[in-house]
Amino acid sequence: MTATPANGPAGYFPSIEKKYGHPIAHWKELIRSSPLTRHMELVAWLKAEHGLGHGHANALVKHTLDEGGK
After folding, report:
1. Which residues contact 5 (CB under 8 A, 6 or more apart)?
2. Contacts of 4 (CB under 8 A, 6+ apart)
3. Band (8; pLDDT cuts 50, 70, 90)
4. What is the DSSP letter of 16?
5. CB-CB contact of 62 with 39 (8 Å)
6. In the prediction, which pLDDT does 1 show?
7. Rounded to an integer, what is the distance from CA 8 to the centroid of its chain?
8. What's 4's DSSP letter?
9. For residues 40, 41, 46 and 52, what is the CA-based torsion angle, rounded to 10 degrees?
10. CA 48, 52, 23 angle in degrees (round to 5)?
């Protein structure tokens, strides 16, 4: 039996981990510890300060905020 690929923002997680070399938990902790709280502010911060692409940053922020991360 094969694992079903994740849908939505989590679908980006394998490529995020591979491209940036950190587990998803690392990025979620950064987002949670940031003083920023608004979605697009967090996306812009991840892009500017951590070099993430827009789609990857957006997926991480959405998933973290959907979990009640802020």
Report:
1. 11
2. none
3. confident
4. H
5. yes
6. 47
7. 12
8. P
9. 30
10. 130
Q: For the chain, give the mean pLDDT.
A: 91
For residue 11, give both structure tokens: 């679908």
pLDDT at residue 53 in the model? 97
3-state secondary structure 23-67: CHHHHHHHHHHCCCCCHHHHHHHHHHHHCCCHHHHHHHHHHHHHC
Q: How far apart (Å, rounded) are the C-alpha atoms in residues 8 and 22?
A: 20
Q: Report the amino acid identity of residue 31.
A: I
- The whole-model pTM stands at 0.86
- What letter would DSSP give residue 19? H
C-alpha 39, offset from chain centre:
11
Share of the chain above pLDDT 70, in %: 90
